[in-house]
Amino acid sequence: MEAKPVLALPEGLELIELEQMDDLLVITVASTQSAPCCPLCGGAARRVHSRYTRRVADLPCGGQPIRLLLQVRKCFCEQGACPRKIFVERLTPFIDPHGRVTRRLFQVVQVIGLATGGRLGVRVTDRIGIQTSRQTIIRRILALPTESAGQVIELGIDDFSFRRGRTFGTILVDLSSHQVIDLLPERSVESAVAWMQKHPEIQYVSRDRGNDYAQAARLGASQARAVADRFHIYKNLVEAIEPVIARCYKEIRKDLPKPAKPKTPQVKEWRPAPAPADERQRLARLATNQERFDSMIELQKLGIPQDEVARRLGVTKRTVQNWNKRGSCPGSRRRHKRRSLFDPYAAYVLKRWKDGCKTGSILYQEIKAQGYRGSDQQVYRFLRTLKQEKVELPDLPILSRLSVRESLWLIARPKDDLEADERADLKALCQMSTELTALHLLVQAFGQIVRKREGHRLDEWRQQVEESGIAELQRFVKGLERDKEAILAGLTLAYSNGVVEGKVNKLKLIKRMGYGRASFPLLRQRVLHAL
What we know:
Shape: extended
Distance between the termini: 35 Å
Structural class: alpha/beta
């Protein structure tokens, strides 16, 4: 097999010699052009002035770096009108004039830089046999030409953060081609207006509910139709109804009768069985605290001041005061059990235990399929408790089982997406409050309008909100009225900011790969030329 096809040398170059020098593969190549052309006038030259050798780096072969020794000629230009009398023959497009690397190596380094960045790119090139630096990779990226945005008919605009909550930029996406067309270094009305005014062909501007981009669309693209993003509209509704659910929870708890305390406890509260090492540490701490407490009592009987007692015991004065106030050894009282992720599934595991299933791995897989997000260790700790003593679980009221946030998503999610137990919880909630029932109906109706893009039903829904008397929803409706045209477009047209949000997510990945140290020009290049 010949070496030239393996090295993929272009026409006009001939392999002369191949030599191994340490970890470097040196290849001598000569130009075989019959009549080099002058770079200024294009005339062919046949008279050779002299020869010299160019040293150029090329793509590695088998993990070994390659150095090309190119034997090129200097020729006389035979055109009398040409201002250049002597020129060096060109080897483009294989090597650029004055280039120290081949163009294919240049392009590979660019691609690696776009995919990884500067510092990480050096780690990649070192392993594949390319000798470069992070500054060189960054220069290669910045050398990429940035094409103009061209004709933009459907524009999506959103912000992204350089530092979350502090500094922001703007991303602009062509919704028809799904491509990022530009990044702006700030989130301001002026910069967005200036960009939009350069593109009078824009017909649709998809945005979120923020005032900055709404104003920018009105000033910079008055001919375009603003489209409010449906996701943000529904998100605003969910945020608006959370205070309603919290208020209903307070009212329901206020109206519930307080349960009478039984003389003897009928149900025992379950507690996870402690690990042996943790139990030993707890008992050791309890013994130490008991010894200190007894010493404190003896010292106080002798009339020693609290400052001196605290100094002798090695504690603070506030600790001594707290021990006197409690009147018992610290740590002797039983702490209240904290709510855990396993509590909603404890009843199911207890039932399966009584049915004869006592294998922890099987029980863990069953409750995991039901939505349990905790670890299997909690399941095994519960089973150890069952082995040690008899446990019965009380029927927790729904307000104790469901937080306000969980109830919020039961009301906001489509009813068809709920599981059977979730539907039962939702039904129980609605039976406890007529306001929650009305809220659920209104939220589900608005969800249908958003998902099916039935913007013509918005006025009818607004009338239902006015009749419901729910103040939070009425304020939400007033907010919709202030941006009514964009809201109707978002609930009618197919445009949305979904593509833009995806591009923002990709931008975040690129930004974090730069470890937060890349400047805006480099970030812009990597986003616009992302692979």
